[in-house]
Amino acid sequence: MAIMAVQHSPVLARESLRLLKVRPGGTYVDCTVGLGGHAELILEQLQGKGELIGLDRDRAALTLAEAHLRSRFSNFRLFHRNFKELPQLLTELEINGFDGCLADLGLSSFQLDDSQRGFSFRFAGPLDMRMDRSCGVTAGELVNTLPEDELVDLFRRYGEEKMARRIAAAIADRRRSAPITDTVDLATIVEGVKGRRRGTRIHPATQVFQALRIRVNDELSGLETFFKAAVDLTSKGGRLAAISFHSLEDRIVKNCFRLAAGKCICFKPAGLCRCDRIQRVRILTPKPVVPNEDEVRENPRARSAKLRAVEKL
Description:
2 domains; alpha/beta; disordered N terminus; globular; DNA polymerase, domain 1
């Protein structure tokens, strides 16, 4: 696949760069490089001074990003690592901190449009959904082996799916006769339970696919620990930004930033609150930044994106 054929426009690019306030000579981190869209913009702002450290779990995307960025820049290093390993990686690199960090928690078009990855129900393909295809359980294994009650819990917890029990029952009934191995096959089963609402562009299987993807990649586990460590690693005056794509992620980001800003997140009476009220950051986005109509029109996948950012005091 040619590099140019898989390039994409990064979500909330202009807003992310404005909030990161990239300064030439600084050290910046792109936690989820993908195809290098945000990384390229950060490197342009660095003007050949300073360094960008990039991480990604997807080796195929990282290879494409490396080739594309290397044609223009030299002041960057990319690593095939989970972004939650950032503190460990920086220790290995003997880097004490950074001036800015961006965590785009969504999937790239490259991943969604590859039918063999199994992330999308728009294409027939194997139920994989692993960001790192070198390890871990696949979505197909979960769908075909989890007990029905565990499927119910999975769809409710990670997909916030109201019809989880009926969908899990339909899956259990179907797999008695034959395993479910195809993305379109699973989407059809879910649609058969939920039907389609008139006037909506959201496919009825969206929440089920989201739930499976989160579980397969263990996306929510360790997020709070990561953001707490990221705040510690941010230099004075440095900035930390995160782009989330569903309410579960956004809630974690919001609460982590509020806690770091010395605000209560338990909303209990003052005498019962146990929140750490020490202010370490300033919240730059009292409300999340969302894509405008033009960006959503050009890239419908951006419609659910929310950008939040803080500045280290």
